[in-house]
Amino acid sequence: MEPPAAGTRKIIHIDMDAFYASVEQRDDPSLRGKPIAVGGGGPRGVVATASYEARVFGVKSAMPGARARRLCPDLLFVKPRFDVYRAVSTQVRGIFARFTDIIQPLSLDEAYLDVTSNKPGIASATVIAQEIRRMIREETGLTASAGVSYNKLIAKLASDQNKPDGLCVVRPGDGMAFMAKMPVRRIHGVGPVTARRMQALGIETGADLRARDLPFLQQHFGSAADFYYRAARGEDHRLVHERQERKSVSVEDTFFDDLVTEDALVAEVDRIAANLWGRIEKSSAYGRTVVLKIKFADFRIITRSKSFAAPVRSPGLLAQTGRALLQAQLPLRMGARLLGLGVHNLDHQEGSEEGPQLSLLL
Predict the structure, then answer these.
(1) Which residue numbers are catalytic?
(2) Which residues are known binding-site members for Mg(2+)?
(3) Residue numbering of the annotated binding site
(4) The predicted structure's pLDDT at residue 43
């Protein structure tokens, strides 16, 4: 990436390739080339990370272990070693710090770097990304993919383009064309429900999104419209900021049809709990308080919580607590249009290394 125009930033997003699984395959040669999942393989187990050999079968992060086994009968489950992952993550961040102090970790395996002004005085962000990837390979035995661009949104999307062990550079003049080809479901900040709503309106790609004016987007997507309008044009003014102390981690989903029956509500809480556990383990953000959020059909919101003396470190306990909080509210006064589950009061000795999850407003 050549020196940018005045005022343009140079941003790199680094994403370690199948991080936990790659560490396990590095440390245990018998696992190399085999489909493995780091996490629990039992009825309440969740996949934290899957190797690329497992991903070809459809095994993904945050997937329940039982489903992963059905998709890939030869799947090998490996117990997570978060002390090792944190040590490797610290090693990788030490490499980042050779180039810049403006580092925003998102989890143990990915981070943004602002290298507009950098310690070695290298003019090209592409050269810096190449050097970082080389050092990671030489010093850790692992591979990383990188996206290089003029803002965070495009840099993160670019890092996914050529995985694994890939590099993608999107220069300032190419940002709009890059976004035009991007499926809306891949744009960070567009969740699964919103992506389906967009597709129902004929919006499949960034180009389709750019063709809609701001009033149309405001009519259909409310306060998020401005973000979508700018994203379709390759615009993102968020700064890379240094690590912040995470206060909570959560997952919530909005439904096309309001959920009414107990079976449907409990099944959704279980699914959200499995997804949340994947995020908790990825970011090592264990909390003492489990919080349930319900938004009703009339948009009224309630939250209910339960606190423990020690952080919740079991996916089974997380799901069980979520179900208990829900069942205490049944029968609901009306259908639920949104359910969410989160953990608060985090154990910062375990989770303070992590920055906040990427969200629409980050």
Answers:
(1) 110
(2) 15, 109
(3) 15, 109
(4) 61
